[in-house]
Design goal:
There is one protein chain. The chain is an alpha+beta fold and 190 residues long. The protein is 43% helix and 22% strand. It is rod-shaped.
Length: 190
């Protein structure tokens, strides 16, 4: 006679393996073979992970590429339009209203200056203490490039001339003044 446990086991219904068990085992074996081939050498492991990283990057970047490019293009266009309309020469305008923020150099005083010719026009460069640094003869007056005596008279007169320097935010800065010497009078343009 059989022991009671064995007879109870024989009495149980026979269990049949699932029909897709062989397919599932083949899939598991295939994955294990692929995993082993990936980690067989360092080169294949690096190649595998870099390929996966590149795929992740492409999947993330493609949906963002067109909106990013559109935003960048719009920013460049708006900046260009704004920059083209921005006033760049505000201080160079002749119609600018003078403020206390910037004042031009001005003529203060000059001694006697006997002039024998019709008109001499010069542009003076004034330093930040009101002294003449340099001067240039300007077209529009009598050409005196070769008249040494007149040049010496102008040099002597400018030596004793007094000017108020230009200011920017209350601080003296170098500036320019145009003087026109005519018989008997001096015209000043800042």
């Amino acid at each position: 006679m059989e022991p009671p446990i064995e007879s109870a086991l024989h009495a149980l219904p026979k269990r049949l393996p699932p029909s897709d068990l062989s397919t599932r085992l083949r899939v598991i074996a295939s994955r294990e073979r692929t995993r082993r081939s990936i980690f067989a050498t360092m080169h294949t492991a690096v190649e595998h992970y870099s390929g996966r990283a590149w795929l992740q990057f492409e999947n993330l970047a493609r949906p963002l590429a067109i909106p990013t490019l559109g935003g960048l293009a719009a920013a460049v266009v708006l900046f260009t339009v704004t920059a083209m309309n921005y006033p760049t020469a505000a201080l160079a305008s002749t119609m600018d209203v003078p403020t206390v923020l910037y004042t031009e150099a001005s003529f203060k005083n000059m001694g006697l200056f006997p002039l024998d010719t019709e008109e001499v026009v010069i542009d003076l460069t004034i330093d930040d203490s009101g002294r003449v640094l340099d001067y240039v003869f300007v077209d529009g007056g009598v050409p005196i490039q070769n008249d040494k005596q007149l040049k010496n008279k102008i040099d002597a007169a400018l030596l004793f001339a007094e000017f108020v320097p230009a200011t920017s935010f209350g601080q003296p800065i170098p500036g320019k003044v145009r003087l026109s010497f005519r018989r008997g009078r001096i015209d000043v343009r800042g």
